[in-house]
Design a protein that fits this description.
The complex is a heterodimer.
Chain A: H1 2-35, H2 37-44, E1 51-56, E2 62-69, E3 72-77, E4 86-90, H3 93-100, H4 106-111, E5 115-118, H5 121-138, H6 141-147, H7 157-178
Chain B: E1 13-16, H1 24-30, E2 36-39, H2 42-46, H3 50-59, E3 66-68, H4 77-89, E4 94-99, H5 101-116, E5 126-127, E6 137-141, E7 153-158, E8 163-168, E9 176-179, H6 189-208, H7 214-236, H8 241-261, H9 265-277, H10 281-312, H11 314-319, H12 325-344, H13 350-353, H14 361-368, H15 383-394
Helix pairs in contact in B: 4-5, 6-7, 6-8, 6-10, 7-8, 7-10, 7-12, 9-10, 9-14, 10-12, 10-15, 14-15
Chain lengths: 181, 395
């Protein structure tokens, strides 16, 4: 009985969590493309103007990021200026929650059919590597190891801390700048 | 609570064994189809492989209304449009694809157009675009390797844009796959070897990559056992009907396995090598398999070790310490490749192919990193990793 009563609140909290995580991730994708050369090199292979979307089916939370050229991303929030070119779609909010709460790795989510790719698969592979790189920077190692297939042995603490600080600062600045009055 | 989750789907009716082709008329009638069209290629026709299919239908009073036998090795959007035109003109109501991967993919794509309408197959490219079942579609494979008869994908080249269009939908799966040993009896030795190793790779990667699941595992291990028990016998005695049927069934089983649990780095490297150096897919699979297994070894030690039972049998398996079984599995695959090299010079290294230049390895590595199957490889592959595997596979 109690479970039945609190269930709507749990669902609402889960949706809110996913929504907030998408907002953080979108801004962090823009930030990491401004601070990390590896991400820039990955992104350079994407066509300029490519719109990437990550969303929850059917009309759930979403983030939209554009490759504005030379390896830089721009976060568009949850609405795209034109039809997106590449979309990674979670089949259900529960699946998005599993990934965004680091209970399931992104690669596992693909393997477990939690997500669909609509668009060029090679770009989706690239964006997955960018997301993994981002997660290794912004998450503590113990959590990042749960989020990515393999934590890079070459990423040492000083580089991680400096990059994470720069990314978080940019994310926070972006939040302030884009906060609605 | 376990986080393990999987999906498994294969609605294809498998009709396999002696006189399997003769079941086609009955199966078509069961789907209310009376005017089938055959889609095939010139090689299949020249080898006389259409004759038993046509005879099986005519004997039951079922007329093959049209035969399109000009499917190229890399089928294109214009070929698909032309065949769909003939299908409509002749008022056909079913498609029978007879051949290897290209004829089967073409049959799938034609079925989209004749079922959904229009002339532009590119409109249906992508995943999940199709929302309705298509027309009756049968597949008669003439190679034992691709597993295309049980996969829900097709790839067609858009020659105007110079890109390969992928189509993914469970509606692409045929209603039936007819596995008849007569269709592979005349395969030349090097194609028999390469296609069987393609199936072996499908099964091995399905069993060791990230989306492995209990149902795919069962198909994968059974396929590996059949290939390891029959391949060399068939190489020594190409007219061995029983052995041919075993290989054909193994190919279908491996196809069911990998279409439900995907593949990994062997395929990423193979796709890139095929695109850059134009090497046959099966050859690439055979070539890269042991090197990739060595690279993945510490991530797949346990499942890889289990495969020793199906490759070498219970005596060798039980005599090998558990800690050495994974390495023994790789050795068994290497041994099989050596035997194939002895019998038909199936290359074991990139150098042995004579068609790959050492300065192409970097390009192959870069392209492999963007291949979709790399996502399911158990280890995260970096550019340097891919280069290292290629260097090992060089000579």
């Amino acid at each position: 009985m109690l479970l039945k009563r609190i269930q709507p609140m749990v669902f609402q909290a889960r949706r809110l969590y996913v929504d907030i995580m998408f907002q953080v991730m979108g801004r962090a994708l823009q930030a990491v493309s401004e601070v990390d050369e590896t991400v820039q090199n990955e992104a350079r292979a994407l066509p300029q103007g490519l719109l990437f979307e990550m969303m929850v089916m059917p009309e759930g939370p979403r983030l939209i990021v554009e490759h504005i050229g030379d390896g830089y991303f721009h976060y568009h929030g949850d609405s795209a200026p034109r039809p997106v070119d590449l979309s990674i779609q979670f089949k259900h909010i529960a699946h998005a929650f599993l990934v965004l709460s680091f209970q399931e790795k992104t690669s596992e989510a693909f393997a477990n059919d939690r997500m669909l790719v609509d668009g060029d698969v090679s770009y989706a592979v690239r964006m997955t590597r960018v997301l993994n790189r981002l997660e290794t920077f912004i998450l503590p190692k113990l959590i990042a190891e749960r989020a990515v297939k393999e934590y890079p042995a070459s990423l040492h603490l000083p580089e991680k801390l400096i990059s994470a600080a720069r990314i978080y600062l940019k994310v926070a600045t972006n939040f302030v700048e884009t906060a609605r009055p | 609570m376990s986080h393990k989750y999987y999906e498994f789907f294969c609605p294809v009716k498998v009709i396999a064994g002696k006189a399997a082709l003769e079941h086609i008329p009955y199966e078509l009638t069961g789907l209310a189809a009376k005017r089938p069209m055959i889609v095939t290629d010139k090689g299949v026709r020249a080898a006389g492989l259409l004759d038993p299919v046509i005879a099986a239908c005519e004997e039951s009073g079922l007329e093959i209304v049209s035969i399109y036998d000009d499917v190229p090795p890399d089928s294109s959007t214009s070929v698909v449009r032309d065949i769909a035109g003939i299908y409509r003109q002749e008022k056909c109501d079913a498609i029978i694809a007879v051949g290897g991967g290209s004829a089967i993919d073409t049959g799938k794509a034609v079925n989209i157009l004749v079922s959904e309408g229009g002339d532009d197959i590119a409109r249906y490219s992508g995943a999940g675009i199709l929302k309705h079942p298509l027309k009756p579609f049968f597949v008669v494979p003439t190679t034992a390797g691709t597993g295309s008869e049980v996969t829900a994908v097709a790839v067609i080249t858009d020659e105007k844009k110079g890109v390969k269009l992928p189509f993914t939908s469970s509606f692409l799966l045929p209603n039936a796959a007819i596995i008849d040993p007569r269709m592979t009896l005349t395969l030349p030795p090097h194609i028999t070897a390469a296609t069987a190793m393609d199936a072996m790779t499908h099964a091995t990667e399905a069993f060791t990559c990230m989306a492995k699941n209990p149902l795919s595992d069962a198909y994968a291990t059974a396929a590996i056992k059949k290939i390891s028990q029959s391949l060399l016998n068939v190489m020594d005695n190409p007219k061995d009907t029983e052995g041919r049927l075993e290989l054909a069934q193994a190919s279908t089983m491996a196809g069911i396995a990998f279409s439900n649990s995907m593949v990994g780095l062997v395929h990423s490297l193979g796709h890139a090598t095929g695109a850059i150096c134009h090497l046959p897919h099966g050859l690439c699979m055979s070539l890269y398999l042991p090197y990739v297994l060595e690279y993945n070894l510490e991530s797949i030690r346990e499942p890889l070790g289990e495969l020793l039972l199906y490759l070498e049998g219970p005596e060798v398996y039980s005599a090998t310490p558990a800690s050495r079984r994974a390495e023994a599995t790789i050795s068994a695959i290497r041994k099989l490749r050596d035997q194939l090299y002895k019998r038909c010079q199936l290359p074991r290294t990139l150098k042995e192919t004579g068609k790959v230049l050492e300065n192409q390895l970097d390009h192959i590595a870069e392209m492999a990193l963007d291949d979709g199957s790399i996502m399911f490889n158990p280890k995260e592959v970096t550019l340097e990793d891919a280069r290292a595997v290629l260097r090992r596979a060089w000579a």
